[in-house]
């Protein structure tokens, strides 16, 4: 499983066993729903409310255009994962240099942090509105989302998908009722599908909407989640998987479009219609809904949907963080550690913003986070288009000329809008700053560097005549099976024992491997408080009884003709076992696994995981 994306759930759903087409289709449904929650997260709410209150229905066309863009780009992302079995980050690592990949990784992490920031703030605002919990406390409570994700992943990807779909149903149901209460003007709504941008503020909001809708981290995530489905790798099965995933994406993303459009229409029908053009804060929107709609349930539904949106989108953001780290850097750490780091990256700026600038600043921060997401889009979209266009990589499943043209048009639109935004913002900063020299020294070079990187990742695959594929299993070419393979021989075998039921299996396996020709060492580490403090000078009851147990093991084995020695150590097994094994130069270390629950392993850690990284010899784990 080395090199597999999200390997804990990779190919965990076997679709090939489904006999009927309908059951097979249902088995493929799910990944796009996890993607769709990113299209209706609290960051979308901020941009949609700002757009609806300031410009009425005028920006509905931006939502529709964003949804069409998203549908095409997500289908390309799914195609990459289904055909090549690679997520977008892994494909980038195989194409670009380590330095460029590191920069792309940092930018992807910034995008995920911006997305997670919106989710943290949204969740905290929802808790404040519904339960009157202080916003700063709500930011802290959002840390618990990480443990919910761990629980869901432990139960399997299908359980996670069911949880997300339930939350989507809550969000959709709440806004359906809100729409009924708002009674929007359908004739005016229809004019919103005509493309217009009233002013530069509308451009800023439009780019925020695009950034909130077409999210870069969703492209990484989708290319990975589709790999949770196991199917035959023949051409017919791959075609079928692609078709089913297009349906999955179309259904899920259209639901997301309905939610986004409902938020913007709600803001237009209530705030803009009543002359409230400056409503950009989610809290203000919540407070004004009840008097404007004449129902106390309006604000409750709004807050409930906000909590559901924040809770659901946090799941996908933390998963995307794991995917980009493993894909770009080939660095695998414990998933719970990775997810806590992702959450902390978002919580710290959110808490600082609320603490120093007050709760009134959250709306601007949400819109800014979505603009940051939009600025990152080009760095994910352009490599994706290159990968799925490459016939060397994709074979018969490379995208058609029409799809390629449409994809590049979308990329040009997004990059063009972002270039315009960056130019306008930097110009404004230079003209209004008391010390413009700092803008020229710090901001302008970063913008130029980003532009150079964007050009590089655009032209690099075009002029690269031969794609060098990075091996996910290092040095596989060095395995020369044509040579004579020497017989396996272990002369010195160390066995870690803890006087539990696992010892018999460990010792039996060691004797089976080494037989009577090998020398065996039984190692036990005393972990009492006295042993941790006094070490070898410990003279407590447990250390003496442990030595007696070791002597008993030795006597039994020697009586059967085996060559055995014992070693009693004091302190932490995670330190003492590797120190002894490495010093004595054993050929093999055998350890017993106890089958702890995931919660115990997460809290207490496992000796096996630590020891196997520290010892210089092969480790066999016996269960």
Q: Which keywords apply here?
A:
26 helices; mainly alpha; two-stranded parallel sheet; five-stranded parallel β-sheet; 623 residues
Commentary on this structure:
It is a single chain. This protein is mainly alpha-helical and 623 residues long. It is 70% helix and 5% strand. It contains 26 helices and seven strands. The protein has helices spanning 21-28, 31-36, 42-55, 60-84, 88-95, 98-131, 135-141, 145-155, 157-182, 186-191, 200-213, 216-225, 235-272, 282-293, 296-329, 335-357, 362-389, 391-394, 401-432, 436-463, 502-514, 529-534, 541-559, 573-584, 598-604, 607-614, and strands at residues 13-14, 229-230, 492-496, 519-526, 563-570, 588-592, 619-622. A five-stranded parallel β-sheet has the order 5-4-3-6-7, with helices on both faces. It has a two-stranded parallel sheet with strand order 1-2. β3 (492-496), α21 and β4 form a beta-alpha-beta unit. The radius of gyration is 29 Å and the shape is elongated. It starts with 12 loop residues before the first strand and ends with a strand.
Q: Which of globular, elongated, flat, extended, rod-shaped describes the shape?
A: elongated
Q: What is the end-to-end distance? A: 20 Å
| Portion in strands | 5-15%
Strand order of the largest sheet: 5-4-3-6-7
Rg, nearest Å: 29 Å
Report the structural category: mainly alpha
- Major sheet description: 5 strands, parallel
Mean pLDDT: 80
Number of strands: 7
**Which percent bin holds the helix content?**
55-70%
So how many helices? 26
Uncertain regions spanning at least 5 consecutive residues: 465-470, 472-479, 596-605
Protein name: Divalent metal cation transporter MntH
Organism: Neptunitalea lumnitzerae
Membrane topology: Multi-pass membrane protein
Domain UspA: 490-623
